[in-house]
NADP-dependent oxidoreductase domain-containing protein
Amino acid sequence: MSGIRQVCSDETREDIFVASGGTDRSIAGLDQRLSDCLDYCGGKYLDAFILEYVCPYELDDEIMYPGPELAASLKHTQEWVNQGTVRYVGISTHSHMVGKALARSPEVDILMLRYGMSHKDAAERLSFPAARENGKAVIAFTSTRWNRLQEGIQNNSQWNKDFAPTSADCLSFVFGSKASPPVEAVLHSARDEDELLCSLSEFKMLSLDEENKWRDYGKIFEELNEDNFDEYPEERSI
């Protein structure tokens, strides 16, 4: 992380996308967070600021639109866009109902959503169609289900570790036919440099057969949800 300041201050700044965010919804807290981020990177602006972990209770139940506190936060962060200190405002959420609702908001430019071979149904039915309809870019995250997908399924001859997906497969799946668009970027937390380089070099556009294979694999995790990865399992059937 120590290299961020150097990257943000030299000639390559326009070639990278620098984003940060926070969970505070207060105006003072947001201003402090932005100030800290700019001080940390030594730059004049962020490419994106994300209001993190937006929950269903932050929406108005009747109209499924931002409630008062969230609306004020979005309005304030959009003022940064007008001032030139932030280029895009986004939200992150684990709820695809929230993603669907906020895709309609003109003050939200980016949606950060969970998506992968083991967490796809709600995204493909709820948030992704809304994002496409409203022209909102999606940043997908946790594509490896906390690196659980690469481990295979115990006591399952079809899906043991030898047949489990690689990190590159997990990354490739997120840009599959049912996800991109609206997915334009993926947060890919490789466990080490070798895995990162391997993921980038082996990334590819999957064939339909490959995509369906990994959909079947991920479905096992999606239905069991033994690790409570899916915080809103009811959204899968909406």
Notes: Residues 172 and 206 are 7 Å apart (CA to CA). The mean pLDDT is 92.
